[in-house]
Amino acid sequence: MANAEKKLEKPLPRPAPESRPFWEGTKQKKLMLPHCDQCGQFWFPPSQRCPHCLSLNFQWREAKGEGRIYSFVVYHRVYHPAFEGDVPYVVAIVELDEGPRILTNIVDAPENVRCDARVRVRFEEASPEFVLPKFTLLS
User: Fold this and answer.
1) In the predicted model, is pLDDT for residue 16 greater than 60?
2) What is the pLDDT at residue 8?
3) How confident is the model at residue 1 (pLDDT cuts 50, 70, 90)?
4) Which residues lie closer than 8 Å to 95 by C-beta, 6 or more apart?
């Protein structure tokens, strides 16, 4: 394949140790979040202690995978050559029903995306090592 025809690879996540359970969960098509044993709150992004009460005692729990669009932007420009075939695409902050907000993509047509619209997670294999959580509209 000539260089001009070679498909560019999209950048992949570089997980910190704190986020490894999240990425292991996505491989199993599960949206895993840290949940505090002390105050009962979920949070994201992952960290070594609860940002609500500073407890070190927490477990990873599976989230329902539904929420609402808190905010979004539609990209019409190509900021990385590997995304050239994807424009326009939606980058959004989804507020999960469990409370945390997550930066993600909405895979539906940009003209159908609205703030407060209900969404559900779906998983997209980005590479053999990474499955990305993206969201789709719930009618």
Assistant:
1) yes
2) 81
3) very low
4) 67, 68, 69, 70, 101
| Amino acid letter for position 116 | D
Q: What is the DSSP string of the chain?
A: --GGGPPPPPP-----GGGHHHHHHHHTT--EEEEETTT--B-SS--SS-TTT--S-EEEEE---EEEEEEEEEE-S-SSGGGGGG-SEEEEEEEETTS-EEEEEE-S-GGG--TT-EEEEEEEE-SSS-EEEEEEE--
| CB 24 within 8 Å of CB 15 | no
The proportion of the chain whose per-residue pLDDT surpasses 70, expressed as a percent, equals 95
Q: Model-level pTM?
A: 0.90
Q: Which structure tokens are listed for 73?
A: 């932007």
Domain ranges of the chain: 16-137
Instruction: Round to whole Å and give the CA distance between 73 and 131.
Output: 22
